[in-house]
Amino acid sequence: MRYIRYFFLGALALVLISVALANRELVNLQLLPTGLSDLLGIQHQISLPLFIVIFGGVIAGLLVGFVWEWLREHKHRAEAARKGTEVRQLQRELKRTQKERDKDKDEVLAILDQAS
Description:
Elements: H1 2-22, E1 26-30, H2 34-40, E2 45-49, H3 50-72, H4 74-102, H5 107-115
Antiparallel strand pairs: 1-2
């Protein structure tokens, strides 16, 4: 299994390197569309190699997806935390009830009752 993972990572590295080498030309990225930037007076642009733009877009998409999924699963995490708290409370209550039940019994019989 380890070799399959190494093979996959090596193949992925080769693909990423070939994409980077094939897309080295510079592109201009603008903050706003031309009409809107003329209207607002904000004309900010930067020149980057195309492969950085591609990889940056992929990374930004992954981050947005991770954050979106984390927010979507909040209700499930909250429910799990609430149930965990309830389980701990019920376990404490069970121990307290067993101690009350076994306080008049012989110590050996109380241990045998707890084991079953």
